[in-house]
Amino acid sequence: MSETITKGAEAPSGDNTPKSSPEKKQKPERVASLWSDALRDLRRNPIFIIGAALVSFLIILAVVPGWFTDGSPFDNNACDLADSLKRPSAEHWFGFDVQGCDIYTRTVWGARNSIIVGVLTTSMVTLVGALLGLLAGWKGGIVDSILSRFTEIFFSIPLLLGGMLIMSMLGKGNAWTVSVVMTVLGWPQIFRIMRASVLANKNNDYVMAARALGAGAGRITFRHILPNAIAPVIVVSAISLGVYIGAEAALSYLGIGVQPPEISWGLMISDASVRFLDAPHVLLFPSAVLSVTVLAFIMLGDAVRDALDPKLR
């Protein structure tokens, strides 16, 4: 009687059966978005790193200037005419101005008013212009027409010329009045950019889908349209911050911006311009700090623009 031959291959000797390995945890895929891609690009951009470092230092300088002057604030009564126009030395790095005041101390404490004007003006311009542009672009119709015609009135007034006219009528000025005047004249640029961005985004598919799901106008505006339309506004605002600091210096140089006994770089440049040939260091240091500040904010704005603009990738 023949042995029964079993079908199929015999199991090999030894325990070589594959063991069931636990499933490996898969890392969640990174969700690509405009902001995450922009942040990754900014971290790799040396221009942004340099600009951000300079801006951070300048903000610290404006907030706590006492850290850089041994805790002593600038005092006009401490100026000595015997030190007038003395050159830089190891004890006084920037030398003395016409009134015998230490230029280094004045430059450090002058950063406060200049940075305050730039940051405050940019914040108010962005807030007013973005909200009105969002309203005009979203509503359209008669609201858009009225706001657009109203904006054209301010577009016909140059920033510096209008600032000179208004500040001369107000008389004595300070950092807050200069910021308000430049806000009144500067918001139309942000308005137009925001309005155009909203018009380009409000008919996209994700907005139509939100409407179909029953989302209200407020939710669509602030949860869907605003985050996608704000990028060009941020870029222009970052670049404009340096422009506003330069505008404040120009108004103070003309004697209609920040007034003594307050300190600003524009006032220092104005006082030093008449003695440039006799003592160039009096004009050199505040002018150099002002130029570096404006350059730092422009570098920061350019880097943000390159990161947020898909056409430049």
UniProtKB/TrEMBL annotation:
The chain crosses the membrane at residues 47-68, 115-138, 150-170, 176-194, 229-247, 283-304. InterPro entries: BP-dependent_transpt_permease (IPR050366), MetI-like (IPR000515), MetI-like_sf (IPR035906), OppC_N (IPR025966). Residues 1-29 are annotated as: Disordered. Keywords: Cell membrane, Membrane, Transmembrane, Transmembrane helix, Transport. It holds the Pfam family OppC_N. Gene3D superfamilies: MetI-like (1.10.3720.10). It comes from the Bacteria. It is a multi-pass membrane protein. Residues 111-301 form the ABC transmembrane type-1 domain. The keyword Membrane applies. It is found in: Cell membrane. Its main location: membrane. The keyword rRNA-binding does not apply. PANTHER family: ABC TRANSPORTER PERMEASE PROTEIN (PTHR43386:SF6), OLIGOPEPTIDE TRANSPORT SYSTEM PERMEASE PROTEIN APPC (PTHR43386). Belongs to the binding-protein-dependent transport system permease family. This is ABC transporter permease. It comes from Kitasatospora purpeofusca.
